[in-house]
Amino acid sequence: MSLLKVTIDGKTIEVEPGTTILQAARQIGPDVAPPAMCYYTKLKTSGGYCRTCLVKVTKGSEKDPRPMPKLVASCRTTVMDGMEVQNYSSEEVVEARKGVVEFLLINHPLDCPICDQAGECHLQDLSYENGRSKSRYEFKRRTFEKIDIGEKIQLHMTRCILCYRCVKVADQLTPGRVHGVINRGEVAEISTYIQNAVDNEFSGNMIDVCPVGALTDKTFRFKSRVWFLKPVDAHRDCDQCSGKAVVWKYGNEIYRVTGRKDQWGEVDEWICNTCRFEKKSPSDWVEEGPRKINRHSVISQNHYGSKTRFVASPESLPQKQLS
Amino acid sequence: MGRKLLLTHDHVEGIQGYAAYRANGGYRSVEKALKKMTPDEVVEEVKKSGLRGRGGAGFPTGMKWSFLAKPEGVPRYLVCNADESEPGTFKDRYLMERIPHILIEGMITSSYALGANTSYIYIRGEYFYVARILENAIAEAYANGWLGKNILGTGYNLDLYVQVGGGAYICGEETALLESLEGKRGNPRIKPPFPAVAGLYGCPTVVNNVETIAAVVPIVNDGGDEYAKIGIGRSTGTKLISASGNINKPGVYEIELGVPVEEFIFSDEYCGGIANGKRMKACVPGGSSVPILPDYLVCKTAAGEDRLMTYESLSDGGFVSGSMLGSGGFIVYDEHQCIVRNTWNFSRFYHHESCGQCSPCREGTGWMERVLHRLEKGEGHMSDIDLLVDVAKKIEGNTICPLGDAAAWPVAAAIRHFRHEFEYHVLHPDKIKDPKHGYREPIMPVKPEPVTA
Q: Would the CB atoms of B356 and A183 count as touching at under 8 Å?
């Protein structure tokens, strides 16, 4: 099969047939890639729920140049040859995305100061980049009781944005899914059936895929802010998983273990619960060196020593400090 | 007097039973189709008839059928959507209650045309007693050799099942219906793939409304050309309209498409005018999800032409000054009805029925409902009105399934045409709270205003 040509925000790329618009945009680069809260490359049938990746297709394909009537979810729409897509260059898309961010935030508790996910939260990034600075919602936010699903994972449903990623993890990685979405509409929630415990070796990956702080690692809760920790690539021999992980250290102490996340916040390889929750001693791991973190991320504030020290460029500083 | 095709015999004694239905010409279409026609010829007749989906969207049925993928060795399914839950729509219930056999007959003929050997009728949970009527009819059809193996000795097999839903509005959306039929949570699927390619159990599937399938019976009996003679332009045939609200004779009417709206509301043959000698204030012509029309746009379009009961004429003027035929849930409001309260009521319904899968609908419907409730109680602010318009705009078109649109349209249209009433609710909270005045009194004089489309 020949490669398909697709133009996104004026940038053209040739991709394999079957590639989605989102994937094509990621191949071009972060400037044109739409944000995604529910889509996860490694999870089949994920995507399409959050609607943050909506884009405008101004030309369907070379054969059928008609534009698509509505905005489409780029994570679930495959590219056609000669397709032309507008993402940030379309006013309509920017407005719609602003609306989606607002919808996601109206019932979000915004408890970032006490949330373990703060600093690596996709919703924080999304709302910072695409949202508005004030909420127009004046009603009581919906809340849920915190529940423990399994021994090591806590579910704080109030923060959840119902991306369905953890449901797909349970479906595709673990032998039997015991949690899912119950109720409908505004009160729909992730839950286990009558407080059933999620108990299997790969359930911990639900924490990694959760874009917000709804699923948190109970062995790490309230231990530290993520930007005080040093992420270090490390591996160990594991008979269940690849053993390739990131250990988050403070001094010589390992505070938590996660999968290795790429530029888009998606893990490269799944890790098992033994690696994630049990192996917290430095002697368990062979360190490979500091993990490269995007310098715009708050996590890179932490220093690795003089070589990779974070130096603020004048444009990245807030205007107040400059004047 | 308009011609009737579906409800011709609805007042015949015992028409619910097989004997009376057969004596009045029932099951002729099955005989004709199975013995004298090939499946493709039946599809061709339906195409010629110009029949359009009666469930709301108005997509040409013949075209939908011809899109059905036909890979070798994969079963095909026909599913009848009897999950009629739109507020203001009750035509399918009436049809299934009165003449259940016409649906069974239509299902057999349509299944034959599509080459389906197993077909389902997915019926709304609240219609459990109708499901019983249908199951009796199916048993009678089996007993008389219209269903089962080797029907009429032609070698065609068909099994027909009734599945009762759990009572969720969202399961009327075709892909959510298929999910529910498969025994899963009734969440709409993300399209593509469309059901014509991968539907029920991943097999090619056609989902049609009850009335659409029933309309196949007269089309096969009399021929598609004969059916296409009724109606105007691309709106052919007859349509069941569920008329409700402040009219003298609410009920289900079968009309020839093309009847003027004015005649439909005011003639004695149909609704018989507004009840209690009042004047009309507004009308929702196609079920709760279509835009509301103020009185001066109900009978005439913005261009001053007569508005007719057709798909095209009712949507004349787009969403600025038009509406939609939708599923035919015709709701009329007299001058003493409060549009704000009505809009809140609709909004509350969509808030309750949103499946919660995609964020704009999950969060937006609840937000709109709360703001509308506040306005309705007289506790709103002027800025709430523009906020509602903006929220509706952000939901519309950005959701997985059309429920988001259905929730946004009535709110946007009500504010477009009745903004003065929303403002009155903000400015005079004391008057709307007083039970003596309240919303039952005319809030603003109803007067036709010139409209610039």
A: yes
Nearest chain A residue (CA) to B188: A49
B389 at interface of A, judged by CB pairs closer than 8 A: no
- In angstroms, the CA A181 to CA A164 distance is 8
Q: Is A104 on the interface with B (CB under 8 A)?
A: yes
Which residues does B23 contact at the CB level (< 8 Å), separation at least 6?
A: none
Tokens standing for B291? Answer: 């835009």
CB pair distance less than 8 Å for A100 and B359? yes
Q: Please state the CATH superfamily assignment of the domain spanning residues B18-229 in this structure.
A: NADH-ubiquinone oxidoreductase 51kDa subunit (3.40.50.11540)
Which of A136, A139, A185 is closest, CB to CB, to B362? A185
Residue A321 has pLDDT above 80, yes or no: no
One-character DSSP codes across A122-153: HHHHHHHHHS-SS----SPPP----EE-SSSE
Q: B339-433: which CATH topology?
A: de novo design (two linked rop proteins) (1.20.1440)
- Per-residue pLDDT at B197 exceeds 70: yes
- Over residues B252-264, the mean pLDDT reads 93
pLDDT bracket for residue A91 (50, 70, 90): very high
Half-sphere exposure of B172 (CA within 13 A, CB side): 26
Structure token digits, residue A136: 């127009």
Q: Is the pLDDT of residue A220 over 50?
A: yes
Cβ neighbors of A24 (< 8 A, separation 6 or more) are A6, A8, A13, A15, A79
Mutate to test the interface with B, among A22, A51, A90 (most CBs of B within 10 A): A51
A1 confidence band (pLDDT: 50, 70, 90): low
Segment A21-42, tens digit of pLDDT:
999 999 999 889 999 999 999 9
Q: Which two tokens stand for residue A124?
A: 């924080």
Q: Which residues of B417-452 are buried (b: 16+ CB within 10 A; e: fewer)?
A: bbeebbbbbbeeeebbeeeeeebeebbeebeeeebe
pLDDT tier, B122 (very low <50, low <70, confident <90, very high otherwise): very high
Average pLDDT, whole number, for chain A? Answer: 87
Q: Both tokens of residue A149?
A: 């699903």
Closest chain B C-alpha to A280 CA, distance in angstroms: 37
Handedness of CA A277, A281, A284, A290 (dihedral sign): positive
Contacts of A291 (CB under 8 A, 6+ apart): A231, A232, A233, A246, A260
Dist CA A54 CA A68 (whole Å): 12
Q: Are A45 and B198 in contact (CB under 8 A)?
A: no
**Which amino acid makes up residue B261?**
V
* Domains of chain A in sequence order: 4-93 (3.10.20.740), 107-217 (3.30.70.20), 226-301 (no CATH)
Q: Residue A55, CB half-sphere, CA atoms under 13 Å: how many?
A: 32
**Closest Cα of chain A to B100: distance in Å?**
32
The answer to whether A99 and A91 are in contact (CB under 8 A) is no
pLDDT at B442 over 90: no
What pLDDT is recorded for position A304? 52
- Asked if B170 contacts B188 with a C-beta cutoff of 8 angstroms, the reply is yes
Q: What is the pLDDT of residue A300?
A: 75
Q: Which CATH class is domain B235-334?
A: alpha beta
Burial state string for B294-325 with b = 16 or more CB within 10 A and e = fewer than 16: bbbbbbbbbeeeebbbbbebbbbbeeebbbbb
CA B104, CA B324: separation in Å to the nearest integer?
29
**Residue, of A307 and A193, whose pLDDT is higher:** A193
- The confidence score (pLDDT) of residue B191 equals 85
